[in-house]
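stage 2 :: seqdesign
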């Protein structure tokens, strides 16, 4: 945890590079069952023509793990965790309806669960560090604050969609990298 806090405080310690988020998902995927529990089925879908982003690969892995664990917390009896990665061209109309999203080209990473979802009050609090889907304020929700920090550091945005008793989706939009520069 100390290493992560230091990474946030010192920008120069980050190793931003041209990155394929799909490759990161495929690398992390085999470790997820041990992190989320055997009762949670993990499904992934990655666009084979995925755009690249500029980010620190270790931070993207950390973000993915935090999102998976957060989703698993809302499914104590088991369920399905779905990770989808694709390209997204967000237009001005979408951006206007989903503030603070801005129009542009992004790689979209969506983590969905079949858990009990968040109520409207809780959804407005994401990523409050004390929030978890289980409703406890034991600090387990620090993962969401970490995700928010990583996404901001990468120039992206986070959007949540939750249905009471219908699961949650956290969607991360990371800006497309157009060159090596």
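stage 2 :: out
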């Amino acid at each position: 945890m100390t290493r992560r806090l230091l990474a946030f405080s010192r920008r120069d310690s980050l190793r931003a590079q041209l990155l394929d988020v799909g490759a990161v998902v495929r690398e992390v995927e085999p470790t997820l069952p041990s992190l989320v529990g055997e009762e949670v089925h993990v499904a992934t879908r990655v666009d084979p023509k995925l755009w690249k982003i500029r980010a620190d690969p270790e931070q993207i892995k950390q973000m993915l793990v935090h999102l998976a664990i957060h989703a698993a917390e809302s499914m104590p009896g088991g369920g399905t965790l779905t990770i989808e990665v694709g390209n997204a061209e967000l237009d001005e109309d979408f951006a206007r309806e989903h503030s603070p999203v801005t129009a542009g080209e992004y790689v979209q990473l969506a983590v969905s669960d079949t858990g009990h979802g968040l109520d409207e009050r809780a959804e407005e609090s994401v990523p409050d560090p004390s929030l978890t889907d289980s409703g406890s304020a034991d600090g387990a929700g620090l993962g969401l604050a970490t995700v928010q920090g990583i996404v901001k550091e990468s120039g992206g945005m986070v959007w949540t969609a939750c249905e009471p008793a219908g699961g949650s989706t956290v969607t991360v939009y990371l800006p497309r990298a157009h060159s090596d520069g």
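stage 3 :: structure notes
- Residues 2-175 form a domain with the Heat Shock Protein 90 fold (CATH 3.30.565.10).
- Confidence is low (pLDDT under 50) at residues 120-140.
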